[in-house]
Amino acid sequence: MTAQHLDANTLTALVTDATAAPSLHNAQPWRFRHLAAEGVLRLYADVSRALPLADPDTRGLHMGCGAALFNLRVAAAAAGRSAVVRLLPNPADPALLAEVALNDTGPPDPTLTALYPAIPRRHSSRHPLTERPIPADLQDLMCEAAAAEGAQLVFPGAWHVQELLELVQDAEGREALSPGRRTETAHWIRTGSAGPDGASDGIPAEAFGPRRYGRATPVRDFAAGHPVPGRGWAVFEKNPHIALLGTGHDTPADWLHAGQALERVLLTATAGGLVTSMTSQTLEWPELRWMTRDPNSGMAHVQMVIRLGYGPEGHPSPRRPVAEVLDIVRGAASTP
Predict the structure, then answer these.
(1) Which stretch of DSSP H or E encloses residue 35?
(2) Which residues neighbour 173 within 8 Å (Cβ) at sequence distance 6 or greater?
(3) Exposed (0-12), middle (13-18) or buried (19+): which is 45, by Cβ within 10 Å?
(4) Which helix (H) or strand (E) segment is 8 a member of?
(5) Close Cβ partners of 272 (under 8 Å, ≥ 6 residues apart)
(6) Predicted confidence (pLDDT) per residue in 262-315, tens digit
(7) Do 224 and 176 form a contact (C-beta atoms < 8 A)?
């Protein structure tokens, strides 16, 4: 049996797991196309879901798609298949981000299979976390997870964490003074009550977490300026656990590698009992992104700031139906 014999149920299950990945503002900027005749599954960028102000070079869009690609690899391994991935296979079509052959002839990666139960459990937690130390062996596992995907993960020292909090506060102030940025963010927030007929993308009110008392925290307040009935207040951790994910270069291929590394780190953290969230505020302003670097690590380009620790799990955000993001071509391949 080869990839071209994937039945509809298996294909739907694989794409469902892939789309459980995180993305900037939960915009879910991906599309999948199964070419049955060629036996491959293609991943495309959905540029209609880009954020031109917060993510003008589509770095974040590529990372979200990279995270979905990693979930696809994990789901394939759990289904007993090995995934052969080609990144950016057609330079003439930059929207085509990856081509994946899902074979059942080679042994699946057991390290990927072990991460599969974490896919449905991983949700961004925007609640206060404890300051309980993260065991060194778990930190090492997360660093190894990033390295396995061609990226670097570092845990900056206390002084740089405090500097990062100041940078987050700076970024929040800049966004507050930018009507265009506020409008763009507001497009992806859902303050209405959740229900079966609710939005299938964006950040729902249930996932906002409480408003914070006092100092800055590396948690984006998606409700800023928007009333949310019943939303409470809380004191967040004074010394949050922060990790920086980065790469040596800063090209679309690096962003795809970084997205896969990000999801591998997040699933490893989830499997280890941690909750996580991401913050990109400081990375959305070029001068702040440069200052986000940890000078002690030699990291060239920070791709994501990750907050992690022990505490309440986050509320799941909605996902688009598979029918909206997957199409199947049974004859010769065609351009979408």
Answers:
(1) strand 30-35
(2) none
(3) buried
(4) helix 8-18
(5) 138, 141, 142
(6) 999 999 999 999 999 999 999 999 999 999 998 888 899 999 999 999 999 999
(7) yes
φ, ψ for residue 156 (rounded to 5)? -65, 160
Q: Is 4 exposed, middle or buried (0-12, 13-18, 19+ CB in 10 A)?
A: middle
Alpha helices, DSSP H, located in 114-251:
136-148, 158-176, 179-186
Which pLDDT belongs to residue 39? 85
Tens of pLDDT, residues 82-124: 999 999 999 999 999 999 999 777 788 999 999 999 999 999 9
Global confidence as pTM? 0.95
DSSP state of 207: G
- For residue 71 the two structure tokens come to 């979930």
Q: Which of 33-47, 139-153, 225-239, 270-284 has the lowest mean pLDDT?
A: 225-239
- Cβ atoms 226, 186 nearer than 8 A: yes
* Residue 238 DSSP symbol: S
* CA angle, 36 then 72 then 327, to 5°: 35
DSSP characters over 297-334? TT-SEEEEEEEEESSPPPPPPP---HHHHEEEE-SS--
Q: Which distant-in-sequence residues (6+ apart) come within 8 Å of 320 by Cβ?
A: 19, 28, 200, 201
Q: Give the mean model confidence (pLDDT) for residues 192-203.
A: 74
Q: How far apart are CA 183 and CA 30, in angstroms?
A: 22
Tokens of 58: 């589509």
CA distance linking residue 254 with residue 252, whole number of Å: 5
